[in-house]
Amino acid sequence: IQYNDYRGQYVALYTDQNNNVVMRVSDTPQGLWSDAATLVANNLTTNTGMYAPMIHPWSGTDQLGSGNKQYLYWNLSWWGDYNVRLMQTDLSPMLTQV
């Protein structure tokens, strides 16, 4: 869970019971949390084994430059190749959806 200046809310990432990577937002770290928005859907043939999504500490801050504030940067681990990928999610179309 991390506060995101762009959204003005707390953002939580996790994998759900179907191994989809989902995001929820809240005005406070204690909740009430929004419905889950799927960021990466689990597909048993192409991307199974996703786990441990972690928001990059600079995501949503001025540390990455003002042109990147609308993007959520996060790491995603994969079982298959035991690798970590840097992911990017554009939050601007999600301001009214989540």
Explain the overall architecture.
- With 98 residues, the protein is mainly beta.
- Helix content is 0%, strand content 43%.
- The chain is built from no helices and 7 strands.
- The protein has strands spanning 2-4, 9-15, 21-26, 37-40, 50-55, 71-78, 83-90.
- The strands form 2 sheets. The protein has a 4-stranded antiparallel sheet with strand order 1-2-3-4, with no helix packed on it. It has a 3-stranded antiparallel sheet with strand order 5-6-7, with no helix packed on it.
- Strand 1 (2-4) and strand 2 (9-15) form a beta hairpin.
- Number of E-type strands: 7
Largest sheet: 4 strands, antiparallel
Which structural category fits the helices and strands? mainly beta
Portion in beta strands: 35-45%
Overall pLDDT confidence: 88
Count of helical stretches: 0
SSE order, one letter for each helix or strand: EEEEEEE
- Cα radius of gyration in angstroms: 13 Å
Taken from the alpha-carbon principal axes, the silhouette is globular
State the strand order across the main sheet: 1-2-3-4
> What is the rounded distance between the termini?
16 Å
Low-confidence stretches: none
Query: How much helicity do the residues have?
Result: under 10%
The multimeric state of the shown protein is single chain
